[in-house]
Design goal:
Length: 216
């Protein structure tokens, strides 16, 4: 499973990339707003740090406006994937953009039928938001399973990005279900490293090594 980091913070992206585990980045308007920097500057910098796909979202709600914004944002770097919301105008825009060869990430997906429509118009990625579904008492991971199954049934090329991840269990379930990608907030990525037995083990090995006076 590919790992994307879900943040617009360049320091966190740099750190995560230095671990060698990052295949791409996703941002959204809320994450970019948190950084208090210009959108273009942030996107360009992230695209330089990470060679994989970097999702940057349009804000227009009309297909024509989305298309114009997508052309602009995708001209900033070859690895930009333009995020387009899962609404009628968004699907119309993705249909045009896929024919132009512009990478798209259909965002705010909450149902398998929405994912089917996005794949039909050639979206590069689909982003089911599982945490937000869990928040309202639904089963976000069930949706991911349905999308993976539908895309397999019909051999759609659209890749499934498990988004709105809240904890490491979401990542594990995404991997078990066979999602292509999981986009992970930096704090959750850090939690994935942790296990008390690892810490205790490292400490004990070093203590034994030092007690025996060994050298490397
Ligand atoms: C994904 O692309 C989105 O940026 C993100 O996962 C949204 O997560 P949230 O529900 O925590 O805002």
């Amino acid at each position: 499973m590919k790992i994307f980091v879900d943040t617009a913070n360049v320091d966190d992206i740099r750190t995560a990339c230095s671990w060698g585990i990052v295949d791409g980045v996703t941002t959204n308007p809320s994450l970019v707003a948190r950084e208090q920097r210009s959108f273009e500057e942030v996107v360009r910098e992230i695209c330089e740090i990470c060679p994989g796909p970097v999702s940057a979202e349009v804000v227009s709600l009309e297909a024509e406006g989305m298309i114009q914004e997508a052309r602009k944002v995708s001209s900033w770097a070859p690895n930009v994937a333009v995020k387009i919301p899962m609404i009628r105008e968004g699907i119309k825009a993705i249909s045009v953009l896929s024919q132009e060869g512009i990478k798209t990430n259909c965002t705010l997906c909450f149902s398998a039928n929405q994912a089917l429509l996005a794949a039909k118009v050639g979206a590069t990625f689909i982003s089911p938001f599982i945490g937000r579904l869990d928040d309202i008492g639904h089963d976000g991971m069930q949706l991911v399973g349905e999308i993976v199954q539908i895309y397999e049934n019909y051999d759609f090329a659209t890749e499934v990005i498990v988004a709105s991840v809240r904890h490491p269990q979401h990542v594990l379930d995404a991997a078990l279900i066979g999602a292509d990608i999981c986009t992970i907030p930096f704090a959750v990525l850090e939690e994935m490293f942790n296990h008390t037995l690892t810490d205790v083990g490292v400490e004990r090995f070093l203590a034994d090594w030092e007690k025996a006076g060994l050298k490397l």
